[in-house]
Amino acid sequence: MNDVSPLNQGKKNAPAPDLAPARAKKSETYTWALTDHCCRACFGRVLVRETFDRRRVYRCACCGVEQEGRSETVICSCGMKLKTGVDAGIRCMVADAPTPEFPAEVIAAQAQVP
What we know:
- The protein is built from no helices and six strands.
- The protein has one domain.
- By secondary structure, the chain is mainly beta.
- Strand 1 and strand 2 form a beta hairpin.
- The strands form two sheets. Strands 1-2-3-4 form a four-stranded antiparallel beta sheet, with no helix packed on it. It has a two-stranded antiparallel sheet with strand order 5-6.
């Protein structure tokens, strides 16, 4: 296999450039936990971590939106409101039966009123 990058063709024995992302410093890495909520911006999975002073930070695994708050509703679909400020009635829930066509484990759906 040729490890010469197309950018370096014509240069004898030029190695391919290192395209690997830079590693974060140990002090900048965090342990995130999955929640049963999805992002209101992109419907990606919401993650949570606790800071050293017991505050909670929520982050979308897909789009990267990050917000500090008391519950997941700061970025999840459960917190959606209409322009008037009224609750939109959308709730995050675990999918009953994910399929290959729609493999999402957590979905946002209209709340069913009994």
